[in-house]
Amino acid sequence: MPAAPDPRPLTGEPLALDLLNTRWNREGVPQDLLTGTAGLAVWLAGNGLDHEPDARTLRHLLQARDALRAVVDGSPEQGAPLVDAVLHHGRIRAGLTAEGPVERAEFEDDSWGPAWLAARNYLELLATAPDRIRSCAHETCVLHFFDTSRNGTRRWCSMAACGNRAKASRHYARSKES
Fold first, then answer.
1. How many CB atoms lie within 10 A of CB 19?
2. pLDDT tens profile 79-120
3. Buried residues in 131-166 as b, exposed as e (16+ CB within 10 A)
4. In the beta sheet, which residues pair with residue 145?
């Protein structure tokens, strides 16, 4: 059975940030995709992860999300040990095939796979461009994105949503002053 449609306002971000974006606000009301295995199935499918959406995987993924939130929205000093605790459950095994060198993720328990991949992806983002990992600038938005703009000046998770609300709010304030 195919997964239900993804209800989140922002998808398609790198895996670590997409995991953080499983929490969002809709009209001021907090939403959470990962309240059960049905939401987990949506997230796994949306990220192309062929994995069974079971309770253990959900529990590990929630641990990874909390760890990533602590390091991204909190402090690296407090969050790093939490991310490391997730990373402890897997490793990269280098190998050689007829096509050339390969790296494969290995997990002590397969239910850690999606959580470990998200934590590992965060390390890759840090190694690539840590200054491009951003939180939306809108005061009520909790979404995160990887800024791929040429100038590195993106401020909003979505110009159509949060960016437009901010512009409309500034316009209203200016017209009210006049």
1. 29
2. 999 999 999 999 999 999 999 999 999 998 999 999 999 999
3. eebbbbebeebbbbbbeeeeeeebbbbbeebbbebb
4. 134
